[in-house]
From TrEMBL:
The protein's name in its UniProt record: INSC protein
Ranges for domain Protein inscuteable homologue C-terminal: 61-513
Domain Protein inscuteable homologue LGN-binding: 4-48
Gene Ontology biological process terms, A to Z: apical protein localization; asymmetric cell division; establishment of mitotic spindle orientation; regulation of asymmetric cell division
InterPro entries, per the entry: ARM-like (IPR011989), ARM-type_fold (IPR016024), Armadillo (IPR000225), Insc_C (IPR045789), INSC_LBD (IPR031938), INSC_LBD_sf (IPR038205), Inscuteable (IPR039921)
Encoding gene, per UniProt annotation: Insc
Gene Ontology CC: one annotated term: apical cortex
Amino acid sequence: MHLIQVDSVQRWMEDLKLMTDCECMCILQSKPISIEKDEQNELILSSQYSTCDNLQLLLKRAWIISTELTRIAQKLEKNRWQRVHSMTVRVNCHVRSMINEYNSFTKSSSEEMHQLEKLLIDKCSEFTAFTERCLQTEDEEILKSMKSCVNETLTTVAQYFGQLIEVVLTHEAQNLLRQIELSGSLYITESAISSLFSLAQEGAHLCHIIAKEGGVVALFKICRQDCFRCLYPQTLRTLASICCVEEGMHQLEKVDGILCLADILTDNSHSEATHAEAAAVIAQITSPHLTFTQHLSSFLENMEEIVTALVKLCQEASSGEVFLLASAALANITFFDTMACEILLQLNAMKILLAACSDKRIVDTPYSRDQVVTILANMSVLDQCASEIIQGNGVQLLIEMLFEKSSSGNPAEVAACERVQQKSAVTLARLSRDPEVADVAVKLSCIPRLIKLCRSPTERNNSDSVLVACLAALRRLAVMNPDGLENSDFQQLVKPRLVDSFLLCTNMEESFV
């Protein structure tokens, strides 16, 4: 869950109330306090919040329980029985609180859910009693024999807990999808889609549940109704999240989702925001990191019009974010099918992308430059690409990208800068088979920069992939212009086998004198 990836103090502040309530509930044995019947118990945190807030509360409580169960297993391994028992009591309270909270806001629950709740509560009570008996026993042999039973009970608690959470989340996904499908109200539909998006952000498992329950089908149904046009961006954003899992992709194929996306992208009456979110879905489903895109046969049928629309979106983008989404989709498509590169060449995409890079308002981050240089690298395998690059001052841009540095030190940004350096070197290596490109690169002092990246680990952020790409580019330029290197550089970086030069550069120690 993404809840883990936050500042630890912030995490503690958010959990503090939950923990405090847990202690209160422990003392009061889960009995609610209220003076009047219509007053909501303050200890039940999910009072008058929205469905989205309630689901977030449920997921937070579930995360805490899951973490506690893991810690119990660790303490049990070390035979720290006092800690095991106190943590077991705490889990017992959290489980009861979670069930009370959920039942206070859910409109309906199944018989299966009630049975699982009872099983889990009973097993937690049994677990607490068991660990209490262990606490009162000092005989090591008896404790050793009881330990396996405690482990078995802990496993059963974890299984019941997992099953209950699965049923609850499935139930909530079904409720939200029912609202989307049956409600004609714009407000209710928007609220349900927002809650669905929040669920999808919690990870691949939640996306799988939503897709399995028909989430992709319901959302594409919204995207085919003009009365919900104002909800298209939000709906498409949710679709992009769900389609990170295989089940989501299968559902997209079944409902002709590619055709729907193509229609949206080519319809000029839609807003730029809608086009951008449609591009985000395309970027998701064509991601080279996914292993289950092979079945998207319908994508090839609509590829030319999708690529055309994406190039137009890049050209007319009013912000860096829109350009990033459109260029990311194009970059992924160039991996997805080689025919895309030929289509891009016919559409003068090279010229459009190079022009965009000179506009700092549009291409304003290493992430955007990463997408552009990815497209250039994949297009550079075409022979016709060289003249386009020269005409658009592309060689100069690629050399500038060799100087890409992170301004913030953020790990994601640093990684993006490394990719930009690596891909620009790869592109230069590929294009330099053309003597004209190689000549331009040499005149623009490409060789000294490549040597610097090879010899100075800090310049490439100690990246081996950047080093390999730079060595390859340097060797290609050395073939085309052997007089451009000093003898020492030639002997160390060009003449040996690539692997020997690589090892030499990775073992170099920088002088700090």
